């Protein structure tokens, strides 16, 4: 086995932890599965018949508004031409919860602009919170809006039993240990502010590729960043559109998937001997902040930082086709004209059933930057098969501004999150969706993932390259990046401006969050 591979046993252990680790019987019935398969627990039991289940809010009526983002139940229960997608498991779970707690009504936050970018979601949440109409339970990519003070701390409730699982002593025992300190789920004091429900089945995204095109040219789908550009050149020479971004990316911006999964983590990992200040094996927001203040990410001074930005620029200048911002590539993909397209793994089931596609397709992990491209990146390690410690896909927060003065609402929100995390309930969700993993021990793995899970996966470093730390400074940095990509400013000017913006954003974040930087 070549250097850099991680033994298959590692993957087996993770899968066993997820599949076998939660085999205890439920104290309360899980929602009935779509296939009507019998589940553990008495399906007709009432709250008072289950010793561990408590009445919520002493029976007072509570309307709990919930946002599950892309995991919301569809309104239509049958596919139609206008709405071909049907997803019902989360409605079944909510219905069973309401049977257990008849004084609680679950309402869905259907006005949320799901599918929009993070800044648009932030605008929606800000408006809803100001009006007092925000969902008590919501999805915000974990701790993405930490600087806004929106998150209810969840560490204390994770130390209490999950009364919906027989014999559970601590709710946190349901989850693989690495998730309880995951850098996207905790605040700056390492307190949990988001509950993981569903995990990506490896990286969040993959490259969907045209098997016919690759076989015709005798090439393999790319395993690293450099091979992607080599493949793309040959594909373009043979009349294919070599690569398309995710359809929602229509602007030249930082922070997109190429930075998140292919480029940023591997440059950041090479600095971890300096940026992992507490030596816990991961770099969190505070450590990135400290690294910025120390000048470690300054492209005006460091060649490695310059090169990181140049690789991101390279995608726009060397890989994307002219007119990409105004082109709908889906019809061209279906016709076999697109060789590779960047897409989320959540789209795997839909693509698998795509009757308009005229060729066989495959999916591979996003290719990482390796030493073949740069001396400045960390060595890339790979699993033998399957993902290693996958990141959260659906993680849910309780919004502090909504529950802070409403203890009944908070109690209902905690109870629903506990019920949602029952292994049988999460299994129902991921089996219906088909392309994700449950975040709790004992959840099942969808059969659709069998081929995908046989891939060798790059092990993602637990570090990311910081851009700006505040929304307004991110807008400024993206504007400078766009000017640079378009050739409207030179390297030196962009690197200086990027450092200036990053430092300003760090100072603003420190002030806003009242962070003690003594000793930095």
The CATH homologous superfamily of the largest domain is named: Periplasmic binding protein-like II
The succession of helices and strands, N to C, reads EHEHEHEHEEHHHHHHHEHEEEHHHEHHH
What portion of the residues fall into strands of 2 or more residues? 5-15%
Residue share in helix = 25-40%
Distance from first to last alpha carbon: 42 Å
CATH-level-2 architecture of the largest domain: 3-Layer(aba) Sandwich
Shape: globular
Sheet with most strands: strand arrangement: 4-10-5-11
Spans of at least 5 consecutive residues with low confidence: 1-26, 33-51
Q: How does this model look, in words?
A:
This is ABC-type glycerol-3-phosphate transport system, substrate-binding protein. InterPro entries: Bact_solute-bd_prot1, SBP. It comes from Paenibacillus nasutitermitis. Residues 30-53 are annotated as: Disordered. With 520 residues, this protein is of the alpha+beta class. It has 2 domains: 22-202 and 389-441, 3-Layer(aba) Sandwich (D-Maltodextrin-Binding Protein, domain 2), CATH 3.40.190.10; 205-383 and 460-513, D-Maltodextrin-Binding Protein, domain 2 (3-Layer(aba) Sandwich). It has helices spanning 8-20, 89-100, 118-131, 155-158, 211-217, 225-237, 257-269, 272-275, 285-293, 303-319, 330-334, 348-352, 400-403, 407-420, 423-433, 450-453, 471-485, 491-513; strands at residues 5-6, 62-66, 104-108, 137-139, 195-200, 205-210, 340-344, 361-365, 382-383, 392-398, 436-438. The protein has a 4-stranded antiparallel sheet. A 3-stranded antiparallel sheet has the order 7-6-8. Helix 2 (89-100) links the parallel strand 2 and strand 3. It is globular, with a radius of gyration of 23 Å. Mean pLDDT is 90; it is low at 1-26 and 33-51.
């Amino acid at each position: 086995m070549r250097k850099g591979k991680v033994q298959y046993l590692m993957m087996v252990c993770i899968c066993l932890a997820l599949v076998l680790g939660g085999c205890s019987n439920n104290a309360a019935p899980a929602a009935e599965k779509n296939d009507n398969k019998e589940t553990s627990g008495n399906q007709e039991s009432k709250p008072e018949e289950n010793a561990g289940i408590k009445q919520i809010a002493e029976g007072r009526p509570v309307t709990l508004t919930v946002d599950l983002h892309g995991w919301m139940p569809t309104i239509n229960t049958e596919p139609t031409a206008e709405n071909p997608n049907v997803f019902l498991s989360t409605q079944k779970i909510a219905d069973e919860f309401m049977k257990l707690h008849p004084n609680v009504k679950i309402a869905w936050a259907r006005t949320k602009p799901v599918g929009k970018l993070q800044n648009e979601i932030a605008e929606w949440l800000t408006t809803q919170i100001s009006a007092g109409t925000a969902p008590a339970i919501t999805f915000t990519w974990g701790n993405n809006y930490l600087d806004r003070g929106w998150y209810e701390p969840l560490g204390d409730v994770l130390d209490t039993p999950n009364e919906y699982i027989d014999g559970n002593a601590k709710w946190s025992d349901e989850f693989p240990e690495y998730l309880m300190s995951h850098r996207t789920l905790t605040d700056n004091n390492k307190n949990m502010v988001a509950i993981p429900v569903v995990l990506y089945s490896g990286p969040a995204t993959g490259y969907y590729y045209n098997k016919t095109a690759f076989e015709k040219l005798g090439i393999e789908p790319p395993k690293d960043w450099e091979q992607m550009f080599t493949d793309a050149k040959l594909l373009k020479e043979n009349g294919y559109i070599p690569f398309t971004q995710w359809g929602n990316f229509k602007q030249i911006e930082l922070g997109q998937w190429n930075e998140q999964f292919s480029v940023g983590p591997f440059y950041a990992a090479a600095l971890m001997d300096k940026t992992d200040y507490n030596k816990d094996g991961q770099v969190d927001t505070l450590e990135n902040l400290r690294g910025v203040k120390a000048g470690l990410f300054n492209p005006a001074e460091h060649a490695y930082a310059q090169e990181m930005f140049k690789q991101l620029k390279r995608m726009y200048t060397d890989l994307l086709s002219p007119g990409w911002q105004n082109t709908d590539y889906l019809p061209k993909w279906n016709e076999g004209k697109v060789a590779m397209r960047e897409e989320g793994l959540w789209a795997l089931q839909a693509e698998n059933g795509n009757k308009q596609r005229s060729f066989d397709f495959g999916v591979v992990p996003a290719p990482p930057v390796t030493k073949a491209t740069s001396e400045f990146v960390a060595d890339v390690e790979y699993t033998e098969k399957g993902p290693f410690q996958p990141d959260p896909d659906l993680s849910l927060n309780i919004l502090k501004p909504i529950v802070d003065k409403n203890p009944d609402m908070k109690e209902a929100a905690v109870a629903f999150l506990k019920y949602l995390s029952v292994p049988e309930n999460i299994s129902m969700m991921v089996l219906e969706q088909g392309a994700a993993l449950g975040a709790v021990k004992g959840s099942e793995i969808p059969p659709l993932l069998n081929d995908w899970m046989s891939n060798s996966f790059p092990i993602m470093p637990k570090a990311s390259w910081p851009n700006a730390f505040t929304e307004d400074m991110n807008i400024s940095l993206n504007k400078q990046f766009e000017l640079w990509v378009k050739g409207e400013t030179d390297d030196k000017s962009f690197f200086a401006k990027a450092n200036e913006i990053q430092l300003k954003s760090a100072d603003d974040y420190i002030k806003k969050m009242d962070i003690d930087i003594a000793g930095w």
